[in-house]
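User: For documentation purposes, I need each entry recorded in a consistent format: the amino acid sequence on its own, followed directly by the corresponding C-alpha cells. There are two entries in this batch. Please keep commentary to a minimum and don't merge the entries.

Assistant: Recorded as requested. Entry 1:
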Amino acid sequence: MGKAPPIENRIRELRFHAGEMTQQQLAEAIGMTRQTIAAMEQNRYSPSLEAAFRIAQVFGVEIGEVFQWKG
C-alpha cells in the first residue's frame, strides 16, 4: 500500500465541534462523496485546493486550521 500523504487534517474534530456534523452532511455541503470525506479523515486522500478551501469555509476557519503540511 502507498505511503500516506504528508498532509494531516482536523476534519473529524471540526465536524464534532460543528454540532456533530456527519460525513454525509459535510460531503453534501462541499459537493463530494461521504467516502471521500472518510478517506480524507483517515489521511488516505488529499483534497484539491478548491475542496480544501470549501471545507474550511464550511467550518468558518482558515485553511491552515483544517490542514497541516507534514512533509
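Entry 2:
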Amino acid sequence: MTTQQLIDEIHRKKSFLCIGLDVDINKIPKRLLLEEDPIFTFNKAIIDATHHLCVAYKPNTAFYEAYGIKGWQSLEKTINYINHKYPEIYTIADAKRGDIGNTSTMYAKAFFEDLSFDSVTVAPYMGKDSVEPFLAFEDKHTILLALTSNQGAFDFQTQKIDSEEVYKTVLKTSKTWKNAHNLMYVVGATKAKYFKEIRQIIPDNFLLVPGVGAQGGNLEEVCKYGMNDSIGLLINSSRGIIYASNEDDFAEAAAKNAQQLQAQMQTILE
C-alpha cells in the first residue's frame, strides 16, 4: 500500500486508528479455547467488528511466536484474512527486527513477501546496513523505533551525546539512508511534549503512536503537536480495544471502544 492510499483511506473513514492485535489466550473468552484456532477466531471476530472504524491493524509478533508453529500459523491466517477480505486496511508487523544486511533481507522477505504485510517495525541500533534492506521494498514501509512509550526509553533514547538526544540523531541520520521516503517512525503517545521538535526534523513522515488508552497517552495532545498536512499519524490502541470484554460480547465491546476513538478522530479531522 502506498502512502497516498493510506492517506485516502484516513479521509474516507475519518479515522487514523490502528488496532493492535496482541492476543494473549489467557485474556480471551474461555469458550474460544474450544476452537481449533482460538487466536485466529478471536482476531477474525475483532476484525469483522472494527474494520470500518480503523485504517490499520498491528499484530505484535511476540504474541504469536510465543505459541510456536501454531501461533505463527494463526498470524499467517490473520494477515491473509485481512488482505483478502479488507484489502483497504494497512497492516503492520510489529516485529522490531534489525540485524546485519543479509539477515535483515531475510526478515524483510518474511514479512513483505511471504506474509504480505505493508510495513514492519525495525530497531535502528545497528545502523544503516541493518535498515536499508527493508527500505528496498517498493510500496512497503519500514517503521523505525524513534522515541518509544515505555519508561525505559529514558535509559538511552533521550540521553545526550555531544549535546543532542540519541533519538534526534536517529531521526536525522535515518533521513540520509537510501529510500528514506519509505520510513515511518514509532513515537510514543506518552512522550507528547516531544512531538513538536520531532516534527521539525521529520515534518512529512507518518508516525505510529502507541500508548493512547491503557498507557495514558492523550489523543488531543498528540494531534496538536504531531499532526501534519497529510494527517501523518497512526494512533494505536491494543488492550483498550481488544480486551474491552472477556465475555461473549467481546467483539461488540471492542467495536464500541474503537467507535469512541474514531469519533474523537473525526472531530479532530473536521
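Summary note for entry 2:
Residues 250-269 form the longest helix (20 residues).
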